[in-house]
Amino acid sequence: MNIRNIYWGLIIVLSGLLLFEWTSQKREQSIDSHLDYAEFFNTSGYGDGYSIIENDKLFVVVATRTGSIIETRLKEYPVENVKGSLGFRVFGSSTETAFNYYFKSGFTGMNPVYLLSEVGDSFVVLEDPEKNLTKRVSLSSQDYEINILDSSKNGESGKSFAGLYRTAGRPLDLKSDVLSGGMMNNGSYLGVAISTDSAPYETTKLNQIEEGGVQNLSRSGWIAFVQKYFFAALLGSGDYIYNFYALPAESGLYRMGYTVENTSANNLVYEHEHRLYVGPKVRKDLMQKADSLELSIEMGWFWFLAQPMVLAMDWINGYVDNWGLTIVIFTILIKLVFWPVTAKSFSSMAAMRKLTPELNEIKERYKDDPQKTQAETLKLFKKNGANPLGGCLPVLIQMPFFIGFFFALREMVELRHSDFVIWSDLSVPDPYFIFPITFAILMTLTQRLNPQPAGMDPTQAQVMKYMPVIFSMFFVVMPAALGLYMVVNTGIQLIQQAYMYKKSGALAD
């Protein structure tokens, strides 16, 4: 065995062990820090001037004076995958990063100062006695929905409005460091989305909102700030006409929401109830909330392929009740569906493998005559019915489906804190590096099956030997779900390729 390969192997193993120890320490520090904060939060809570309402899904903080919803936590989706963790925040603020995100509603032209009138477990009533305004914030019987009823005893000439106010930046509790999935988290779409009766889904990034903003008039529809896994959306009703808007930053705050067009005879508005969704981006649930709301799960250019894949996986998971096993089963099904196309590709590659000795002989024999080399090579291909590009087209046909599946796995909130065998969270990188190592081994075996181009430069051939290791490094920072998919996909492909090579006699040597 080459002593240099032994040295490289030892370096890789030792580096992996050191990286494992370091990432484990970082993970423990993150959990301990959050649990310390959770203990402080649970004991100190909020002071005077705030009302807390909650149910089994949501924890909501309402600022009494303004009536704004300043914090929401999703109780079934903890920040850390440990007991005692707080729920993930959608609305909230941070003094460390100056991040702020909240909801506000009322009547245009009015700036009420509310007093607490009544509070229960799942509702709070606020009143401004001077302006005769009342606001009732209540948790709906529909999961992750909040109803906000603004009313005026005397009627208001201004329009009813509801808005999301947000600074730029990633969600508060979304992991941003590379080894916790930050590379994929930071790559997810972040921006405003509006759905109207004329356009089911239009998006605008915050830095693309020009002076004057974006406005769309529509009966029904919705507006949301799209971010990974969890988001807030204002859902309209078919009974009203809304002017949806997204405005550029003012004092660091971007504003997005709607005003309700006044259709009353006396041009006075007495009340309006707003419907606010604050929760996870589970496709089947969003489809029940509003038309096209599931499109807020950004799945890239091939969303029309990715979304049916999510539906299929959700159906499979309904039977196996494990998302890791679901990925394995679905990957196997995809490989079976594409087997006819894959078989043609491998047959072509097998033919090229069988011709490799003869191709090398031609290149050596006519090394001083490139034209003769090309002519003899084409003659050999024609004689044996081989096509050097025969393996490319089938791969290109499958590529959109694999890209769609990649984005589906990247955006699925169902994978967050989903366990599989020894893995406790498929949405973060593999902490044990099993998937990257296994992928490197499978790629090395696949590389040995593939025919080496005739006359390849020795230096280039040496570099190619290390490509499996280089590619496997990507899965050190990618979610474990993607690593699982690539290992299963590559493993099945290796078996299929070996079968076709053996069938065609390409493994005889």
From TrEMBL:
Domain of life: Bacteria
Domain Membrane insertase YidC/Oxa/ALB C-terminal, chain residue ranges per copy: 323-502
Family matches, as InterPro entries: Membr_insert_YidC (IPR019998), Membr_insert_YidC_N (IPR028053), YidC/ALB3/OXA1/COX18 (IPR001708), YidC/Oxa/ALB_C (IPR028055), YidC_ALB_C (IPR047196), YidC_periplasmic_sf (IPR038221)
Span of domain Membrane insertase YidC N-terminal: 53-310
One CC-aspect GO term: plasma membrane
Record-annotated membrane-spanning stretches: 6-23, 323-343, 389-409, 429-445, 466-488
Entries under Pfam families matching the protein: 60KD_IMP (PF02096), YidC_periplas (PF14849)
GO molecular function terms listed in the Swiss-Prot or TrEMBL record: membrane insertase activity
One GO biological process term: protein insertion into membrane
Keyword line: Cell membrane, Chaperone, Membrane, Protein transport, Transmembrane, Transmembrane helix, Transport
Subcellular compartments: Cell inner membrane; Cell membrane
Function per UniProt: Required for the insertion and/or proper folding and/or complex formation of integral membrane proteins into the membrane. Involved in integration of membrane proteins that insert both dependently and independently of the Sec translocase complex, as well as at least some lipoproteins. Aids folding of multispanning membrane proteins.
Similarity field: Belongs to the OXA1/ALB3/YidC family. Type 1 subfamily.
Subunit-structure text: Interacts with the Sec translocase complex via SecD. Specifically interacts with transmembrane segments of nascent integral membrane proteins during membrane integration.
Protein name: Membrane protein insertase YidC
Organism of provenance: SAR86 cluster bacterium SAR86A
Gene that encodes it: yidC
